[in-house]
Design goal:
Low-confidence stretches: none
Radius of gyration: 23 Å
Helix content: 25-40%
Mean pLDDT: 94
Structural class: alpha/beta
Oligomer: single chain
Bound molecules: adenosine-5'-diphosphate
Length: about 500
């Protein structure tokens, strides 16, 4: 098997810096690729949380004037991950969320910050660090995408490239006046380059120049080729559809392992069906009680406890769930919400918890431990997204015996089997799905799930089916490995699309 070197370029990397699923993927995939003979190094910005996590560090490049300040490229290892860290304090030495100021507004220099990440990635791709010259540069989302443009406009031999779309809604679009500041030549500002409706489109550029494009579920792959789902990039994606493939995400089963999870009081094994009744049920009941205590909910073992973990946003459909609170409360269900985001939704959920403290518990913020406790203690996880590229919370839920209730979009459609889908998929039911995504359809599915919850034997069957689903990285990693191997055998230049972007 040919050994392949990959430079992964990412703005987030679990466990060093995380706001969502992107970090989970970029953190887990390099480790899952090791048995495939793929050597991955990840280049990340030197945010404070990254700098503080590094053990021994080697300076590999000194960059006296790099995007407006002095910077260094460091080489380090942290949590089994091989890293390059762009230590550029003028760009990244800022606390909190990597993209937003403390008041929730984008940092005004985000174009420069992520162009800098992309530039250093391209430099490594072109051989700036002789001890690690990658065969492939793999860019994740818009923050990394410009690397593929820098590689294209270099006159040096370049590595092959992969662009992964984790969420097409975030595209990195900036004023054209920044072209010189980010170091791209004037001729790059064309429809056949980085230009995107009169501005600079980072993700557009990545999608245009990548040798291969991937996204994170088959249904999302077809959604983004459609008019609405393409979010302005559908035309370009359709042009490039021969080079587009879908590889479902997995979850890191060492982080999300109910048998060893340090965040939960009742650990349980999932791979011994014979022990299901005694081990799983007893320990899940312990976790449910702990979750109810933690959020001040009534300690009711038989109440149908719904969990939510995620960004409080329109994408996630949590306004629709909010509209269903009267049903949830009147039907005797409970709701545990962990998330942050839209300030109006934060306010409304907090107010709902104050009005119904025994039924609704809300924690606003990012809390890794509570996320694990919800997965281990809730009866069901609700993911009513309007669109969802893959979704990770429903995958973790399957592993923890928590039944997913999801909308029929993107990766949710691909990873959960509803009773109504059995004839189609031939699979075993692992959860509940609804669609189209409306308040009424969500109400119906919640009631359907609640009724099944009270049919103990039926509910256990669904839990067992979920827990025996393989949600690990094993299969997805082997698909990425195949993709990489196919690319290193390719000639360097691919034919670029010539049509105008829709
Ligand atoms: P996203 O679109 O936000 O990336 P995903 O479902 O793909 O959604 O991934 C979300 C990841 O972030 C999961 O690992 C989930 O557990 C985690 N997560 C989301 N919100 C929170 C939070 N408030 N606290 C802790 N973990 C969270």
């Amino acid at each position: 098997m040919k050994s392949v070197r990959v430079l992964s370029v990412a703005a987030e990397l679990y466990p060093l810096i995380k706001t969502g699923g992107l970090a989970d993927v970029t953190g887990a995939l390099p480790i899952a690729l090791k048995p495939e003979g793929i050597e991955v190094r990840t280049v990340v910005p030197g945010y404070p949380s990254v700098m503080n996590s590094l053990g021994s560090v080697e300076g590999v490049l000194h960059l006296p004037q790099f995007f407006g300040g002095e910077a260094r490229l460091l080489r380090a290892t942290s949590c089994e991950l091989g890293l390059f860290v762009l230590d550029a304090p003028h760009l990244f030495a800022r606390p909190g969320n990597p993209y937003l100021r403390p008041d929730g507004v984008d940092w005004p220099d985000n174009a420069l910050r992520f162009a800098a990440l992309a530039r250093i990635a391209a430099d490594i791709g072109l051989g700036a660090v002789p001890s690690f010259v990658p065969d492939i540069v793999h860019a994740h989302d818009w923050h990394a995408a410009l690397a593929l443009a820098y590689l294209h406009y270099s006159d040096r031999r370049r590595p092959a490239t992969v662009m992964t779309v984790h969420n097409l809604a975030y595209q990195g679009v900036f004023p054209r006046e920044l072209l010189a500041a980010i170091g791209l030549p004037p001729e790059s500002f064309t429809i056949h380059g980085v230009e995107y409706y009169g501005k600079i489109g980072f993700l557009k550029a990545g999608l245009y120049f990548a040798d291969r494009i991937t996204t994170v579920s088959p249904t999302y792959a077809s959604e983004i080729l459609s008019g609405e789902g393409g979010m302005g990039l559908g035309g370009l994606l359709r042009e490039r559809s021969c080079d587009l493939s879908a590889i479902l995400n997995g979850v890191d089963t060492s982080v999300w392992d109910p048998a060893t999870d340090p965040h939960i009081p009742g650990c349980f094994y999932t791979d011994m069906p014979s022990c299901f009744e005694s081990d799983v049920l007893e320990n899940r009941a312990t976790n449910k009680a702990a979750l109810q205590r933690r959020l001040g909910l009534q300690p009711a073992p038989d109440a149908f406890l719904l969990g939510v973990i995620g960004r409080l946003s329109r994408q996630k459909g949590l306004d629709l769930l909010f509209d269903n609170l009267p049903t949830i409360v009147s039907e005797g269900m409970q709701l545990a919400v962990l998330g942050s985001g839209d300030s109006d939704l934060q306010y409304r959920y907090r107010a709902a918890a104050q009005a119904n403290p025994e039924r609704v518990g809300v924690s606003i913020g990012h809390d890794e431990g509570l996320a694990h406790l919800i997965q281990a203690g809730a009866d069901a996880i609700v993911v009513p997204s309007r669109f969802e590229p893959c979704g990770l919370t429903q995958l973790c839920a399957l592993r923890y015996g928590t039944v997913p209730i999801v909308s029929r979009v993107g990766g949710l459609e691909d990873t959960v089997v509803d009773a109504g889908d059995l004839a189609v998929t031939g699979g075993r039911q692992t959860g509940f799905k609804f669609g189209p995504v409306t308040t009424e359809n969500l109400a119906d599915v919640l009631q359907r799930a609640c009724a099944t919850f009270h049919d103990v034997a039926a509910w256990r069957r669904i839990q067992r089916n979920g827990m025996s689903t393989d949600v690990s990285w094993r299969d997805p990693a082997s698909r990425y490995a195949d993709l990489y191997r196919s690319l290193v055998e390719l000639p360097q230049e691919v034919e670029l699309p010539q049509e105008k972007v829709a």
